[in-house]
Amino acid sequence: MPLSIVMHEHGGPEVLTAVETVVGAPPPGQIRLRQTAVAVNFHDIYVRTGLYRTLALPGTPGLEGAGVITDIGAGVTGFAPGDRVAYMTLGYGGYATERNLPAELAVKIPDGVDDAVAASIYLKGLTAEMLACRVHPIQPGETILIHAAAGGVGSILVQWAVRRGATVIGTAGSPDKLAFARAAGCAHVIDYRTDHFVDAVRAITGGAGVDVVYDSVGRDTFAGSLECLAPCGHLVNFGQSSGPVDPVAPSALFTKSLTLSRPNVFHYAQKNRSTLEEVSAALFAGFVEGWLTAPAPIELPLADAAEAHRQVESRKISGSLVLRP
Q1: CATH for 3-122+266-324?
Q2: What is the pLDDT of residues 10-47, one digit of tens each?
């Protein structure tokens, strides 16, 4: 029987329980997947704790995965049983051995990209593409600050920013993570646990500040991120691993003519089918060509979803974690 991870209430990792489920034939416009890898993201933590009330309960979390098509519904074109595909969806349901999925959300995985890697980098990689190429298109010669530069999104974003000609300052919270961020391409690294990152950025830039800050940490770093910006700088807040940011008065941006963005990758990447195919192709090409790299993801069995959440929530791991159905 197919297996799904279901939560009936918000709470700690223990609310994630494995249950047998029935997956029927795919309805029109959908495909049926035998999943081979399912990514665990910080978004899943927010859903589990109730910070995001976006999953109807009882429900199965999980935004992205990879797998093999086993059946196609009426009207589906461009796919066939046996195709390897990756996907991301705000419809959730990823933590499962099998599932049905709207075909319009799936993209084929090219040869040379492993299923576990595809699942672990798809949402994170499309987020990095959005940040570097669309929300604030990075220009050669810019100096930028990336918080959590050793994280799943952060490390890919560092590489994309360097590819576009930026000088990257990265923050991380341990010697191992600092080394990882530097290996990804950071010209300067800051240990935010021992150094005041605002002072460090001021020293690195000679007081000029940075052109853009990419901040996925949220509450703990937001005010300092604004301080780090040069006049006409841009703060891109795309996560809140330390908690949500307090409301900001527009007048707080006036003193340096700053701009503030809070983007959602689904809005950017899934505007239409051609955009999804374009950004997906750019991401996978980066890995096939070798200018984008990521460590092999940590793998745990699907039934160990609770332990996976504990590891991600601890913020002690570098890179990504996937569940193997």
Answers
A1: 3.90.180.10
A2: 999 999 999 999 999 999 999 999 999 999 998 999 99
